[in-house]
């Protein structure tokens, strides 16, 4: 049996149905947020396409192609992905183009995975376009792109595109309960602050990050009380920096919601007392300004050379004091 996260199963079934009924598309593009496991969907579809004698919706697991697939040694499968986080270059695409113009070494289908379509350079995308436009027989493309990343319209229009939905909260919680023994309250919190993405939530739970989040926000609260940026600074943890800023943003925007009498869809329900307290002490304009400042810090940090990290943080925290808390 193919292993698939439950929220991916309907997409798999739909696509396989289409192939079985003879109208499967040669280039399938899936747009998905990180933390939904889109790679697993691509792999499962690829396995079915390579199998010589699939049993209904399942690859047979017996044929030579299945064995090669499972050993990751199938010579007619190619993967285009960023190498060492560099964009996918035109040479990589040309190399694959050359190979798919030859006969399949195993006499079956040929398969090209493209992981991160928006990471193709313009030249690479153009080189791929021709193969996408004039599909060769028995050649399939399975592509993925991050939901928020732009895909070149020329590529987009040659593919059958589908956006993966965030699973329902109920089904995500059920799945998480099967993966971890942690308390239901923590599972729900992890899922909320992961914006519903189950794999992201599981990673938070397994790495003990909920505890780190509470501690970090506790330190933020002390900073708020004492107005001392230099005391909060050491609690920013380089590998967790963006998560920490996201936790802080969630806390601040919940306080803004509370101030505006919006009591649903809070991300920090587990810290409701702190959220309420901040919302009573700061007006809506101040809370909005606070989220803007932290959002700007986050953007700057993602764009600017890491050498300045501490300065950017310090500047943002100082602005919180001057513009918001004492503004
Ligand atoms: Zn097979």
UniProtKB/TrEMBL annotation:
<dbReference type="InterPro" id="IPR050238">
    <property type="entry name" value="DNA_Rep/Repair_Clamp_Loader"/>
</dbReference>
<keyword id="KW-0239">DNA-directed DNA polymerase</keyword>
<dbReference type="InterPro" id="IPR027417">
    <property type="entry name" value="P-loop_NTPase"/>
</dbReference>
<dbReference type="InterPro" id="IPR004622">
    <property type="entry name" value="DNA_pol_HolB"/>
</dbReference>
<keyword id="KW-0808">Transferase</keyword>
<dbReference type="InterPro" id="IPR008921">
    <property type="entry name" value="DNA_pol3_clamp-load_cplx_C"/>
</dbReference>
<feature type="domain" description="DNA polymerase III delta subunit C-terminal">
    <location>
        <begin position="208"/>
        <end position="320"/>
    </location>
</feature>
<protein>
    <recommendedName>
        <fullName>DNA polymerase III subunit delta'</fullName>
        <ecNumber>2.7.7.7</ecNumber>
    </recommendedName>
</protein>
<dbReference type="InterPro" id="IPR015199">
    <property type="entry name" value="DNA_pol_III_delta_C"/>
</dbReference>
<feature type="domain" description="DNA polymerase III subunit delta' AAA+ ATPase lid">
    <location>
        <begin position="167"/>
        <end position="205"/>
    </location>
</feature>
<dbReference type="Pfam" id="PF21500">
    <property type="entry name" value="HolB_lid"/>
</dbReference>
<dbReference type="Pfam" id="PF09115">
    <property type="entry name" value="DNApol3-delta_C"/>
</dbReference>
<dbReference type="GO" id="GO:0003887">
    <property type="term" value="F:DNA-directed DNA polymerase activity"/>
</dbReference>
<dbReference type="Pfam" id="PF13177">
    <property type="entry name" value="DNA_pol3_delta2"/>
</dbReference>
<dbReference type="InterPro" id="IPR048731">
    <property type="entry name" value="HolB_lid-gammaproteobact"/>
</dbReference>
<keyword id="KW-0548">Nucleotidyltransferase</keyword>
<keyword id="KW-0235">DNA replication</keyword>
């Amino acid at each position: 049996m193919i292993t698939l996260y439950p929220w991916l199963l309907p997409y798999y079934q739909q696509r396989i149905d289409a192939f079985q009924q003879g109208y499967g598309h040669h280039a399938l593009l899936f747009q998905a947020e990180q933390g939904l496991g889109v790679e697993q969907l691509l792999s499962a579809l690829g396995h079915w396409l390579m199998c010589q004698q699939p049993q209904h919706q399942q690859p047979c697991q017996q044929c030579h192609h299945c064995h090669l697939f499972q050993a990751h040694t199938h010579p007619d499968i190619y993967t285009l992905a960023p190498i060492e986080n560099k964009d996918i270059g035109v040479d990589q695409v040309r190399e694959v183009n050359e190979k798919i113009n030859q006969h399949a070494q195993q006499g079956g289908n040929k398969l090209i995975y493209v992981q991160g379509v928006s990471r193709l350079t313009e030249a690479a995308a153009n080189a791929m376009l021709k193969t996408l436009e004039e599909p060769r027989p028995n050649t399939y493309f399975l592509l993925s792109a991050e939901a928020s990343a732009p895909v070149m319209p020329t590529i987009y229009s040659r593919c059958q595109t589908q956006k993966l939905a965030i699973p329902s909260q109920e089904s995500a919680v059920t799945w998480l309960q099967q993966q971890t023994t942690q308390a239901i309250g923590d599972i729900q919190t992890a899922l909320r602050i992961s914006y519903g993405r189950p794999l992201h939530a599981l990673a938070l739970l397994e790495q003990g990050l909920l505890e780190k989040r509470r501690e970090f926000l506790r330190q933020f609260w002390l900073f708020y009380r004492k107005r001392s940026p230099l005391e909060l600074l050491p609690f920013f943890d380089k590998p967790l920096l963006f998560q920490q800023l996201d936790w802080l943003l969630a806390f601040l925007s919940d306080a803004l919601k509370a101030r505006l009498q919006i009591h649903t869809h809070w991300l920090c329900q587990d810290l409701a007392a702190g959220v309420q307290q901040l919302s009573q002490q700061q007006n809506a304009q101040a809370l909005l300004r606070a989220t803007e400042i932290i959002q700007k810090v986050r953007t700057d940090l993602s764009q600017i050379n890491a050498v300045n990290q501490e300065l950017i943080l310090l500047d943002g925290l100082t602005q919180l004091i001057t513009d918001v808390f004492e503004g």
